[in-house]
Design goal:
5 helices, elongated, mainly alpha
Length: about 160
Amino acid sequence: MTRGAAGPTLVLVLAVGVLVATGVTLMLERSLTRILLGVILLGNGVNLLILLGGRAGGAPLAGTAPAGGLSDALPQAMVLTAVVIMFGFTAFLLAVAYRSWHTSGDDEVQDDLEDRQIVRLAGRDEVAAADLGGEGADDDPEQVDPEQVDPEPARRRLRRGEES
C-alpha cells in the first residue's frame, strides 16, 4: 500500500486472490503434503487480507505524527497472532504427515471404509442399514465397539490380501 493511496493496490488484492485460490485448491487434494502447502498459502493470503483492512499511515507511536495520520495497529497485532497459530498448526500437520508416511509408506489420505460403503449404496440407490456400533452406555460390555478398534492401514491390508 502506498502512503497517499486511498486503499490497497490492485497488485496486493490480486496476490490475496491468488494465495487463497491456490491454497483452497491444494487443500482439496488427497496428499497430506499438498494439504499442508494449501493451509500455509491460505493462511498467508488471509493474513495479507487482514493487513489490507488496516489504515495506511505513519508508525503508531505517540508524538510522531498527528492522531489521524497513524496506521491502525490492530490488524498488525491480529496478523502476528495468526502467524503464531499457523506455525503451531503447520507443525501439527507436519507431524501427522510424518506419522502417515512412517506407518503406511505414503502421505495420501485413504477413503474410510464407511465412505466406500456410502458410495456403493449411493450407486445402487439404497439406504444404509442402522448403525449398530454400540455407542450408548447401556450396550453389552462384552461386545467390542468397532469404532474403538484401531484398524491396520488400508495399504497393508491390501498387500496382505494380495499375498494370500
